[in-house]
Amino acid sequence: MIRRTFAITLVVAWAAGLAWGQARPGKVRVAVLDFENNVPHVWWYWDTQRLGRAAADEIVTQLVRSGKFSVIERDKLELVLKEQALSASGAIDPRTAVRLGKLLGVQLILTGSITKFSIKRHGAGIGPLRAQIGQAQSALDVRLIDTSTGEIVLAASGEGEKKFGGAAFKNIDFEKEFDAGIVSEALRPAVEKTVAQILAQYDQLGAHAAAAVPALGKVVSADSPTAVYIDMGENAGVRVGDRFEVVRVVKEIRDEHGELLDTVEETVGTLEVTKVLSKSSVCRVIRGGAQKGDRVQKTRS
After folding, report:
1. Strands (DSSP E) along the chain, which ranges?
2. Model-level pTM?
3. Cβ distance 154 to 114 under 8 Å?
4. Residues 112, 37: Cα–Cα separation, whole Å
5. Count of H helices and E strands in the chain?
6. Is 177 exposed, middle or buried (0-12, 13-18, 19+ CB in 10 A)?
7. pLDDT per residue over 84-99, tens digit each?
8. Which domains, from first to last, does the chain contain?
9. By three-state DSSP, how is residue 82 classified?
């Protein structure tokens, strides 16, 4: 089977590697983009991008802790976004969602926005001793997009508040300075409520697994027909008995300046997994052949 594809897609798919965070079979694979910051005014030194990243990091933590989602690692996500000249945050159109799903090997993309975020402090003191009480309020909106159709399959929102306090004697503070930890704590109540809504709809989200994008990887070693190693293992949910098609670039199409325009690919073989390691798997060739550098694509069961 001959397929023509843009060279950048091939390069990015290989580079992404699909090292999903703590992936296990049956989990819904999701990519979480940095949140948009729609708060009208930010008064501390944190910029809007860092606040959006803090919200994304907190929701990733909650999704992974639930044990039901496999979340793609941030460095892999950022690599693909950079290669595709896309922002790490903000709304994406259906066509872009489908394209990212294929490149990342994820079933869902989570985007969101921060609609409220504030921290108010009140303090009083006598002489060198003072006390301070603070209250943080936050609100989030999130959307989950099906990467096979570009359709928004779930919208959720959450609000929360957190109270904290501390005391000081002269210049010695008994509360940590305002930093990333405080921001995460302020966002956490809203994130927890949002994730609870997502988990309540997990069965419906799990139905999208039937339309999952086949997992992509590459051959890293081919010592013999019974000892072919691929760069996907337990970290990518691979199991003994899984099968992968082997795809090889058979022709490069370049312009008169030597710039690579397209590639022509051919499916040259089929592998079956015989042993699964932490970040790689051992396979045997059951049809055709395989060599180092070939791309592999998991077949649908």
Report:
1. 2-6, 20-21, 28-32, 36-37, 69-72, 108-126, 129-146, 152-169, 172-173, 216-224, 227-230, 243-254, 260-276, 281-288, 295-298
2. 0.60
3. no
4. 9
5. 6, 15
6. exposed
7. 777 665 567 777 888 8
8. 19-119+139-163+170-210 (3.40.50.10610), 215-298 (2.40.10.410)
9. helix
